[in-house]
TrEMBL record:
Domain FAD dependent oxidoreductase, first and last residues per copy: 13-364
Gene name linked to the record: thiO
InterPro entries: FAD-dep_OxRdtase (IPR006076), FAD/NAD-bd_sf (IPR036188), Gly_oxidase_ThiO (IPR012727)
Name assigned to this protein: glycine oxidase
Catalytically driven reaction(s): glycine + O2 + H2O = glyoxylate + H2O2 + NH4(+)
EC main group: oxidoreductase
The EC number(s) this enzyme carries: 1.4.3.19
GO annotation terms (biological process): thiamine biosynthetic process
One Pfam family matching this protein: DAO
Residue span of region Disordered: 382-403
Superkingdom to which the source organism belongs: Bacteria
Pathways per UniProt: Cofactor biosynthesis; thiamine diphosphate biosynthesis
Annotated GO CC locations: cytoplasm
Single Gene Ontology MF annotation: glycine oxidase activity
Organism for this UniProt entry: Streptomyces lavendofoliae
C-alpha cells in the first residue's frame, strides 16, 4: 500500500521526520508491518551515520549508571545477525559490512590499566563476557600494537558494521518497500484537532499523516510547531573522525577493533575488510559546530599513534565531524509523547548504529499497536516531562516556536 498523492500533498499512515539510520529503520520496519510510510529528509541516508565508525560496543562502552541502557544495547546486538540478513534480502542483496571481529581495549600506562580493571570488574558484575590479557597476550593477538601496552580486555562479542553501507541498504529497502521520500527539510509540525497530523516542508509540501515520528537526530529538538512539553531534550555532541586506508601490502594491519583511553580521551581504531581504517572520536560540546580542527585531528592521530605506531605510514583519506544526538541520561527517547500521534525515536547518542535493529522493531510495534514493548518502557519520552506538564492535556500544549 502506498501513500495517496495529490500534487505536493500526500497522506500516509506514518510520516517520519529525519532520514538517518534511525528514521530509515523506523520507516522500513513500519512499512513491513503494512503501514503506508513517508520520510522527510533533504538527504536520506546522511546524518551522523556518515561519520560514525560503526562499533557495536555494548560491552566495551559500558558505563556506571547505564545498566538499563546496557539491556537494550545487548538486545540490539543480539538481533544484529538476523537484522543484517533480512536487510540484505530486502535491499536486493546489499552487504552492510557486518563483521563479527571482536574488540580489544588496551591500557598504555598505570592509570589506563586501573581504569580498564574497573571496567572489567563492572562487566563481570553485569554478567558480561570479557577476558583480561597481559600486554604480551595483547600483542600476540594484534602484533601492530605498541610495545608499551600494559594489558587489555578481550571482548569477543563487540563487533562492527559499516554505517554508510547500512544507511544505503536502508534507503534501498525503504524504496523497495514503497516508502515515499520527500527530499526536503521539515520546518514545522502540523497539529490538527489536538493531534500531530503531518509537517510543513521547506519546499512547500505539506505531507499529512495519521502518526508522525520525530527521528531527526541532534536536530530533533528544533522542529517548529512541536509543543514545548514534548520537545525532545537532545543536544549535539560533536565527534571528529578520521579515515585511513591500509595498503594491501600492510594487511592485516589490525584484525579487530582496538581501543584505549589515552590521557582521559577515548580513541578507537576500527579496521574494515575493504582496507578502510576508521579512527575516532573526539567528544566536544560545541553546539552546531562541525568544523574539522587541526587540534582534533592532531589528538586523534597522536593517541592512535601511541597505540599503534605504524598508523603514521598509512594514507589519510578523510577527516569529518558529525553530531551525536545526546540526551540527558545518554539513552534514547522511544515511543509516544503526550501529544497524540507524535512519537520520538531520537537521542541515541553514542549508540545509534548499535541500537538500529531494536529501534526499528520497537517503533514498528508502537506504530501498529500504540504500545511500547516491555524492553523499551524505560526509554519512554515521558521520563523527561516537566512535572507541571505531567500529565499534560492536549489543549494546553503550547508551541515552542523553535525551528
Ligand atoms: N560510540 C562511539 C562514539 O560515539 O564515538
Amino acid at each position: 500500500m502506498h501513500p495517496r498523492t495529490t500534487g505536493a500533498h500526500t497522506t500516509s499512515d506514518v510520516l517520519v521526520v529525519g532520514g538517518g539510520i534511525i528514521g530509515l529503520v523506523t520507516a522500513w520496519r513500519a512499512s513491513r508491518h503494512g503501514l503506508r510510510v513517508a520520510v522527510a529528509d533533504p538527504e536520506p541516508g546522511g546524518g551522523a551515520a556518515r561519520v560514525a565508525a560503526g562499533m557495536l560496543a555494548a560491552v566495551t562502552e559500558l558505563h556506571y549508571g547505564e545498566e538499563t541502557l546496557l539491556g537494550l544495547n545487548l538486545e540490539s546486538a543480539r538481533r544484529y545477525p538476523d537484522f543484517v540478513a533480512e536487510l540484505r534480502e530486502a535491499s536486493g542483496g546489499m552487504d552492510v559490512g557486518y563483521r563479527a571481529c571482536g574488540t580489544l581495549a588496551v591500557a598504555l600506562d598505570a592509570d589506563d590499566r586501573a581504569h580498564l580493571r574497573e571496567l572489567h570488574a563492572l562487566q563481570q558484575r553485569s554478567g558480561l563476557r570479557s577476558e583480561w590479557l597481559t600486554g604480551r597476550e595483547c600483542r600476540r593477538l594484534e602484533p601492530m600494537l605498541a610495545p608499551g601496552v600494559r594489558g587489555g580486555l578481550r571482548v569477543d562479542g563487540d563487533h562492527q558494521v559499516d554505517p554508510r553501507r547500512l544507511a544505503a541498504a536502508l534507503v534501498a529497502a525503504c524504496e523497495r518497500a514503497g516508502v515515499v521520500f520527500h527530499r526536503a527539510r521539515a520546518e514545522r509540525l502540523v497539529v490538527a484537532g489536538g493531534r500531530a497530523a503531518g509537517a510543513v516542508l521547506d519546499d512547500g509540501a505539506e505531507p499529512a499523516a495519521g502518526q508522525v515520528v520525530l527521528a531527526a537526530g541532534s536536530l530533533s529538538g528544533r522542529l517548529g510547531g512541536v509543543p514545548r512539553e514534548v520537545l525532545p531534550p537532545v543536544r549535539p555532541v560533536k565527534g571528529q573522525v578520521l579515515r585511513l586506508s591500509v595498503p594491501r601490502a600492510y594487511a592485516p594491519f589490525l584484525s579487530r577493533t582496538v581501543r584505549a583511553v589515552v590521557r582521559g580521551s577515548q580513541v578507537y581504531l576500527v579496521p574494515r575488510e575493504n582496507g578502510e581504517l576508521v579512527v575516532g572520536a573526539t567528544s566536544e560540546e560545541l553546539g552546531w559546530d562541525t568544523t574539522v580542527t587541526a587540534g582534533g585531528v592532531y589528538e586523534l592521530l597522536r593517541d592512535a599513534h601511541e597505540l599503534v605506531p605504524g598508523i603514521t605510514e598509512l594514507p589519510l583519506t578523510e577527516t569529518r565531524a558529525g553530531l551525536r544526538p545526546g540526551s540527558p541520561d545518554n539513552a534514547p527517547l522511544l515511543g509516544p509523547t503526550a501529544l497524540p500521534g507524535l512519537h520520538l525515536a531520537t537521542g541515541h547518542y553514542r549508540n545509534g548504529v548499535l541500537l538500529t535493529p531494536v529501534t526499528g522493531d520497537v517503533m514498528a510495534t508502537v506504530l501498529t499497536t500504540g504500545e511500547l514493548p516491555e524492553q523499551a518502557r524505560a526509554f519512554a519520552p515521558g521520563r523527561f516531562a516537566p512535572p507541571a506538564a505531567s500529565p499534560p492535556t492536549s489543549p494546553s500544549l503550547s508551541p515552542a516556536g523553535v525551528s
